């Protein structure tokens, strides 16, 4: 009996440890319909954004969809179960059709599959490409090797949505709650997060032994974040060169420097906001400041409008922030502690925890002072609609970006 119990516990331990660290890459799609297609600018494809409805085929992926366009993909977010669709695209020069190919997936499980669409010249492709008009778009295709699906443009986003900037932040760059496609705080997350519906990133900041700012949530090694190995202890016991050579995130990527993350954010996305959750190593702002200033200089050369916010989550981090007054002089910061703390340190952003409620008075006061308010981390699907409709936040972090995107962009 004892042997059986020991064996069962061993199996359960292996199962849960694997589940906890599971990475599920998007399914491989041969993209045969994209062969020989040519590039279409994302500024042209941006005109596709709006609300689409199911016209024909299976209802299993939903009946209404929000379309959003990132730098390289077109994505649809469903009214059903947090399902999202991410598509590459190209112009078929032979018949002037627009071809789409990619994958669909649930937010809460690793259930996913491949999908493709086509828009013939006479079904809206010509109007979109030449006139920037999406109202005639009719996408016809199939998913899972044969299930037909047809969706039609229905309406643009409401005037409220178009006139209010609302930012959906990826939580450490992880876009799903089950078996995410990439490790958190990773470069692959930066490069792909926008496709999952987010318009901002939240990454963590720590220092190495040689004072290199890196993106890592925990202070010390944990198989939840990094592959199992012989090393132990805090990351600030090791130089960056050592970590780069001998440590890998759970999906095999290297731990990135903040500099690398910001460069990728600027060079390869259209996102505006980067939330840098500073963990409070001694002199962290002294070493973070030149990295952030260099990033702003890089963005300026590309005419990119970015906001790189240093988050102050604790009294200890606030003290470190005060020790580097040049940082707060002209670089943006956000305080999580209280609105008064924000005012005391002259932060431009207020970041309250969602469990504090809608904080309507504090939010109104912050707005009257020209501040934006971002809440974290909102994962309760029953609360998300309430915070969107009845709160006055400027955005929030969520592990359910597909649900947040659908709920926000379908507002009338």
Mind explaining what this structure looks like?
The structure is a single chain. The protein is α/β, with parallel strands linked by helices and 412 residues long. The chain folds into 2 domains: 32-156, Lipocalin (Beta Barrel); 160-409, TIM Barrel. It contains 14 helices and 17 strands. The protein has helices spanning 2-21, 42-45, 125-131, 159-163, 187-192, 240-246, 258-268, 284-301, 315-322, 325-330, 339-344, 360-368, 384-389, 401-409; strands at 50-57, 64-69, 74-78, 84-92, 97-105, 112-119, 138-143, 147-155, 167-171, 200-207, 213-214, 273-278, 307-312, 333-335, 349-350, 372-375, 395-398. The strands form 2 sheets. It has an 8-stranded antiparallel barrel. Strands 9-10-12-13-14-15-16-17 form an 8-stranded parallel beta barrel, surrounded by 5 helices. Strand 3 (74-78) and strand 4 (84-92) form a beta hairpin. Helix 7 runs parallel beside helix 8 (284-301). Residues 1-20 have low confidence and may be disordered.
What is the gist of this entry?
The chain is α/β, with parallel strands linked by helices and 412 residues long.
Number of domains: 2
The coarse overall form would be globular
Query: What's the architecture of the largest domain, going by CATH?
Result: Alpha-Beta Barrel
Task: List unreliable stretches of 5+ residues.
Answer: 1-20
